[in-house]
Model the fold of this input.
Amino acid sequence: MKYQFTFQPYKRRFVHPVQTNHGVWEIREGIIVSLKQEDGQVGQGEIAPIPWFGSETLEQALEFCSSLPKEIDSELILSIPNTLPACQFGFETALTETPEPPSLQFSALLPAGNSAIDASIPLWQSGYRTFKWKIGVNPIDEELAIFDLLVQKIVQNLPNGAIRLDANTGLSLDESKLWLETCDKFMTNGVNIEFIEQPLPPSQFEQMLELSASYNTLLALDESVATLQNLETCYLKGWRQIFVIKPLIIGSPSKLRQFCQQNQIDVVFSSVFETHVGRTAALQLASELSHHNRAVGFGVNHWFE
Done:
């Protein structure tokens, strides 16, 4: 089938800059692609790269879109190379109409640092029960002190609340052990700490495996499994704890679906601050492929106006 192809770049400014170990992020940029069929129906997809996670850059995605003819077919789309994973997702999801996914439990992303404490209450009042907090941004002694207060706030005021910690590769091995020891102690006292996400860089996969076997607190891979090829590699190397999947940068959704159906992995689907177009497609995948009833990491709308 032939499609009339158009694309439109976009920019969305965050209400407050997103702070992670990778730096400060002020504007989310991406591309909406549209594929018009002969009968007039239009399918849309979203290209939302995060190059510091391992996807192509926005410039590379724009260059690819600009290189295409105005009329393309599904064969061309399914031949997009693995070096353009965000493009693979955007074009492939535009091929099919995506139904509105069923309701899912969302995890709310808290701001880094001390402001996370006050931010948790209105988010709880909005219906969130799982919270994700970025660590590895400030000195560890400061973050541990904030974490202690954050745990008190959630345990005392937010019954049944769960906390996830996301280090974005920002910890040393010793710091990772200290965080895991701290979380193990809190869990002994009944605090629901769901997991620590990617404390070490992908190059230290063996150390991550060792940590996963040494503590009660679960670990999750994120940067290590940014693309489908990385996901497959880590699974083959023996990772059996949690995989955080960002659908919009992992690559082909059909190949991801096939992998998850063949391997019953413990997965958390997570946002890349996409628009409604990409979000709808990502949540549809999450509703199909999540087997452990974990909240999906799409509680990010409060980061935009």
